[in-house]
């Protein structure tokens, strides 16, 4: 009995140290979490407060003359560029994703997967540079909605393809087998069964891709240019404004009004990006 | 005749396409203007263009002008590539560039100047005296502190701080860099042989030297960094004043220290405008004369003589003619501290504008 | 089942667009940069003098090519700026990410977990230009006035950490690295968090049975099993940091032709340099400057390709698209 008691006494000394160390470890982990959460909250708050104070009706009804005014042209431009990018990217991205999920369990599939991930990793400025030389100068489109949209589309296609693949793969094999057993063709199975079952996932992908396009800057500077005016509908030979340009150039202007516009633009971009990302996550978690 | 017909057909086609688009988009989109011109480039000229454009558009309904302050380098490059119709630049194009692009015109629209500004806590209300060689020393790192002997010698009686100098330079291709480095090159042989001048120069490595984007970025950099110095176009004089930054007196060719004022800028212009050649590419930097401010320049519109189509050419001509005549009225230029073109230069500009087709 | 019908071929053709685009971009860049690669040789990556030469004088023939007098394209300073800022970013991000992942996976009640882990994920979706804005407005002044002097007070005896050896503007290596660290911490943290949740229960229970505290279970038995995934996450983050453009451009101070002497000194990275210098390079009538920029893009491309390939090998099935 006494021997057991002794060891227990020794152990408890050691254990106190270990417990203290563990407690310190947990505190450090919590601190690490704060190190990432606090800057995010500060960023969101700073932009929300500084941006909201610049909000007014004029912000949404007039366009900027360079240093003050509203953001109408930029808001419309961002919408045109991002939706334009989706028009190009969705058919290709969803088609590629469908191929990878349905028929891509082979060497070609893994090569496409690898190169598609590689394309996602290509710095966006490299894509912008490429488009500037080929589309803006080479094809003579000048700064334009088309050049900007296509550049964004190249960026988001691989995301779309991979998200589509992942969500279509979750559709149970049995559903496909049942359809094939009923004599359905490839196309019918792919569209009527797999795609309709996996549609929420595909829409999710498209929304996330939209969020990425809305927040992108570097490749647009060299392809879409900038315009103070509302887009007139020309696809080429007319530059187009967008919100992220306002953020990056107006903060460098020595005017209070320009700084206010930069923060207002940042708030608008953040609202779209966060709304999409939070919405998508909440909906997905509820379903699972 | 034939080309006329072609042009008309293409305008018709264009109009047809535009009509289709408008109908396609529904009545929600406002009626498109006939011609949209894009101006990009010099951030020194940018404030003036922003003042000009509303007045110009009122006088010329049907023409819209989008302005961008991106730096003279972009202005020249994109006028050459045809991405924009009007490039704005404080620098004229180089001979090799002209040789490669013989259709590009350099058309002065006004005369401008550049100030040397600094943020020296306690001394911003005093006009520091600086010379080309001292500025060259600051920008190549040989003069590292504000109380260096070379600066104290020029400013006897001033209590200069024992603090590192932060030289700020432009990161974008810039006409301000062009005229500033010309001042250093023309006044300091060692700078001329080691660095030279251009819209982009290879800045000597000064650890701590900052890069800034455009004239607005230069003002911001000065504001945020005590003990910094930068070269800034006079069109930003209001922002410089609001930020309570200092403005230097510069040593001119005649050995006098002068501030950029209406009088000293005119004095310098008077010395050199008579030498302006037909293509109007000439440096006005480091002019002789006791009253001459040493860093002044023509503000150029860089324009391709051969435009896309007749309508665009007409609009470009209208804009440049308006800018170099009505736009030179004192109530426009005074806001940015520019000087009007002398009549002889206006005539040369008009002759160049007439070449646009 | 049929092996291939017209529909399958059609889908395959669509899928091929992605690799085709990638290959076209590489080939185009390589072809465009070809002359620069030959003109610059190894000096390109080995010297720190980037100079467009005298653009206002007539071009001369040098090493067999028409170039402006004095043109020299050495990008060592930008390579160092890129690698150094990314390395520091990883150094900051790794402990924070590991701590965050452990905190989320083990310390937080299951009820709060989705909300808090979403908070971390959201950091990764903040557009980089917004990070840049925050960097200019909040972080740079903070570094200049508080963090910089603080570091100097503790480590100031080492010249590299002394803010007084720099101009102390707040724009520079440290600011860029912190912004990059914020951008990549969530990438590493979520990769690790997912892996920790996958660790089999038995492993954990057996460690507890041996008398380990919960923290010891996490650090001594769980972390080693996810080591490879963690490295993969780090490499994934590195890929992002190396190619980041806007945020770095906005807070790095835009250094040209010198190496950082302190962590407060301005730098330039390859990606930010491509964006800020394209307009200047277009001034060169010989086009060698633009082609040299294309060569930077190519070098950057090759580096990120290698890094991303490595990440993919390390994290089985790693994609940039997280399975939500």
From TrEMBL, chain A:
Record domain ABC transmembrane type-1: where: 75-280
Subcellular locations according to the entry: Cell inner membrane; Cell membrane
Protein topology in the membrane: Multi-pass membrane protein
Main localization, broad class: membrane
CDD domains found in the cross-reference section: TM_PBP2 (cd06261)
Keywords: Cell membrane, Membrane, Phosphate transport, Transmembrane, Transmembrane helix, Transport
Top-level lineage group: Bacteria
TM region(s), chain numbering: 21-49, 69-100, 112-133, 139-161, 189-212, 260-284
Family under the similarity heading: Belongs to the binding-protein-dependent transport system permease family. CysTW subfamily.
Protein name listed in UniProt: Phosphate transport system permease protein PstA
Lineage of producing organism: Bacteria, Pseudomonadati, Pseudomonadota, Alphaproteobacteria, Acetobacterales
Gene: pstA
UniProtKB/TrEMBL annotation, chain B:
The keyword Signal appears for this protein: yes
Presence of keyword Transport: yes
Transmembrane portions of the chain: none
Domain PBP residue range list: 31-323
Signal peptide: 1-32
Coiled-coil positions: none
UniProtKB keywords: Phosphate transport, Signal, Transport
A Pfam family annotated for this UniProt entry: PBP_like_2
Top-level taxon in the UniProt lineage: Bacteria
InterPro entries: ABC_phos-bd_PstS, PBP_domain, Phosphate-bind_PstS
Family to which this protein belongs: Belongs to the PstS family.
Record NCBIfam families: 3a0107s03
Subunit and interaction comment: The complex is composed of two ATP-binding proteins (PstB), two transmembrane proteins (PstC and PstA) and a solute-binding protein (PstS).
Function: Part of the ABC transporter complex PstSACB involved in phosphate import.
UniProt name for this protein: Phosphate-binding protein PstS
Name of the coding gene: pstS
Automatic annotation (TrEMBL), chain C:
Location of the protein in the cell: Cell inner membrane; Cell membrane
Gene3D superfamilies cross-referenced by the UniProt entry: MetI-like (1.10.3720.10)
Membrane topology of the entry: Multi-pass membrane protein
PROSITE patterns tied to this protein: ABC_TM1 (PS50928)
Domain ABC transmembrane type-1: 79-311
Principal cellular location given in the protein's record: membrane
Keywords recorded for this protein, A-Z: Cell inner membrane, Cell membrane, Membrane, Phosphate transport, Transmembrane, Transmembrane helix, Transport
Similarity section: Belongs to the binding-protein-dependent transport system permease family. CysTW subfamily.
Protein name: Phosphate transport system permease protein
Gene name of this polypeptide: pstC
């Amino acid at each position: 009995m006494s021997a057991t008691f002794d060891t227990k006494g020794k152990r408890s000394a050691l254990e106190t140290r270990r417990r203290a160390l563990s407690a310190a470890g947990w505190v450090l982990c919590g601190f690490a979490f704060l190190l990432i959460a606090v800057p995010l909250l500060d960023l969101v708050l700073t932009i929300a407060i500084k941006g909201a104070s610049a909000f007014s009706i004029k912000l949404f009804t007039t366009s900027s003359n360079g240093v003050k005014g509203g953001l109408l042209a930029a808001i419309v431009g961002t919408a045109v560029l991002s939706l334009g990018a989706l028009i190009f990217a969705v058919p290709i991205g969803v088609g590629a994703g469908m191929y990878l999920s349905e028929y891509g369990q082979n060497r070609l599939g893994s090569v496409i997967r690898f190169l598609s991930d590689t394309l996602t990793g290509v710095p966006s400025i490299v894509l912008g540079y490429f488009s500037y030389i080929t589309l803006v100068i080479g094809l003579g489109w000048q700064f334009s909605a088309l050049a900007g949209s296509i550049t964004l589309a190249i960026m988001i296609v691989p995301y779309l393809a991979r998200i589509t693949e992942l969500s279509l793969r979750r559709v149970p094999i049995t559903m496909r087998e049942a359809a094939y057993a009923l004599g359905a063709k490839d196309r019918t199975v792919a569209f009527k069964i797999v795609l309709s079952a996996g549609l929420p996932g595909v829409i999710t992908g498209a929304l996330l891709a939209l969020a990425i396009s809305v927040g992108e800057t570097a490749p647009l500077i060299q392809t879409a240019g900038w315009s103070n005016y509302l887009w007139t509908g020309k696809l080429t030979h007319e530059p187009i404004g967008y919100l992220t340009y306002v953020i990056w150039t107006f903060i460098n202007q020595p005017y209070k009004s320009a700084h206010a516009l930069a923060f207002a633009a940042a708030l608008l971009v953040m609202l779209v990006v966060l709304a999409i990302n939070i919405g998508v996550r909440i909906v997905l978690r509820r379903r699972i | 005749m034939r080309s006329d017909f072609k042009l008309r057909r293409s305008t018709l086609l264009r109009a047809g396409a535009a009509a289709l688009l408008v109908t396609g988009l529904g009545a929600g989109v406002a009626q498109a203007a006939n011609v949209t011109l894009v101006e990009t480039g010099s951030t020194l000229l940018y404030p003036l263009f922003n003042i000009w454009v509303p007045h110009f558009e009122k006088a010329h309904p049907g023409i819209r002008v989008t302005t961008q302050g991106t730096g003279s380098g972009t202005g020249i490059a994109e006028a050459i590539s045809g991405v924009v119709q009007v490039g704005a630049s404080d620098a004229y194009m180089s001979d090799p560039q002209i040789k490669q692009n013989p259709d590009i015109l350099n058309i002065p629209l006004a005369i401008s100047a550049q100030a040397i500004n600094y943020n020296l806590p306690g001394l911003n209300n005093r006009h520091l005296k600086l010379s080309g060689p001292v500025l060259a020393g600051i920008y190549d790192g040989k003069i590292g502190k504000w109380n260096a002997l070379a600066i104290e010698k020029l400013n006897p009686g001033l209590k200069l701080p024992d603090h590192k100098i932060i030289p700020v330079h432009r990161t974008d291709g810039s006409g301000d860099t062009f005229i500033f480095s010309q001042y250093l090159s023309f006044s300091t042989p060692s700078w001329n042989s080691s660095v030279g001048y251009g819209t982009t120069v290879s800045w000597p490595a000064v650890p701590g030297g900052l890069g800034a984007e455009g004239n607005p970025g230069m003002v911001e950099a000065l504001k945020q960094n005590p003990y910094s110095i930068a070269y800034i176009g006079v069109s930003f004089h209001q922002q410089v004043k609001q930020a309570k930054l200092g403005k230097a007196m510069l040593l001119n060719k005649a050995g006098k220290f002068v501030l950029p004022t209406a009088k000293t800028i005119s004095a310098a212009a008077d010395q050199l405008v008579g030498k302006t050649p037909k293509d109007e590419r000439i440096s006005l930097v480091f002019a002789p004369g006791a009253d001459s401010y040493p860093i002044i320049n023509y503000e150029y519109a860089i324009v391709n003589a051969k435009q896309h189509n007749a309508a665009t050419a007409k609009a470009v001509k209208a804009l440049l003619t308006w800018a170099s005549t009505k736009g030179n009225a004192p109530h426009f230029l005074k806001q940015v501290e520019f000087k009007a073109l002398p009549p002889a230069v206006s005539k040369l500009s008009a002759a160049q504008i007439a070449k646009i087709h | 089942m049929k092996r291939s019908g017209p529909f399958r071929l059609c889908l395959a053709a669509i899928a091929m667009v992605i690799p085709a685009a990638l290959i076209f971009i590489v080939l185009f860049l390589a072809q465009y940069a070809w002359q620069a690669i030959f003109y610059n040789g190894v000096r390109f990556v080995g010297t720190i003098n980037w100079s467009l030469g005298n653009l206002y004088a007539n071009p001369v023939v040098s090493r067999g090519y028409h170039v402006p007098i004095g043109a020299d394209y050495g990008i060592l300073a930008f390579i160092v700026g890129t690698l150094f800022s990314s390395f520091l970013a990883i150094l900051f991000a790794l402990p924070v990410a590991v701590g965050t992942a452990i905190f989320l996976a083990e310390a937080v009640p299951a009820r709060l977990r989705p909300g808090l882990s979403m908070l971390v994920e959201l950091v990764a979706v903040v557009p980089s230009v917004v990070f840049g804005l925050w960097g200019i407005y909040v972080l740079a002044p903070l570094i200049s006035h508080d963090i910089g002097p603080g570091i100097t007070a503790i480590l100031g005896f080492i010249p590299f950490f002394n803010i007084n050896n720099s101009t102390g503007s707040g724009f520079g290596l440290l600011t860029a690295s912190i912004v990059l660290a914020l951008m990549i911490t969530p990438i590493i943290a979520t990769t690790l968090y997912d892996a920790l949740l996958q660790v089999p229960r038995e492993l954990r229970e057996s460690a507890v049975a041996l008398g380990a505290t919960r923290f010891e279970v996490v650090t001594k038995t769980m972390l080693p099993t996810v080591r490879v995934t963690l490295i993969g996450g780090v490499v994934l983050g590195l890929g992002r940091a190396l190619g980041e453009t806007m945020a770095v451009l906005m807070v790095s101070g835009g250094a040209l032709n010198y190496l950082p002497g302190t962590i407060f000194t301005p730098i330039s990275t390859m990606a930010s340099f491509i964006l800020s210098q394209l307009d200047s390079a277009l001034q060169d009538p010989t086009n060698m400057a633009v082609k040299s920029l294309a060569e930077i893009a190519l070098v950057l491309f090759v580096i990120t390709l290698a890094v991303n390939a490595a990440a993919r090998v390390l994290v089985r099935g790693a994609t940039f698209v997280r399975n939500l």
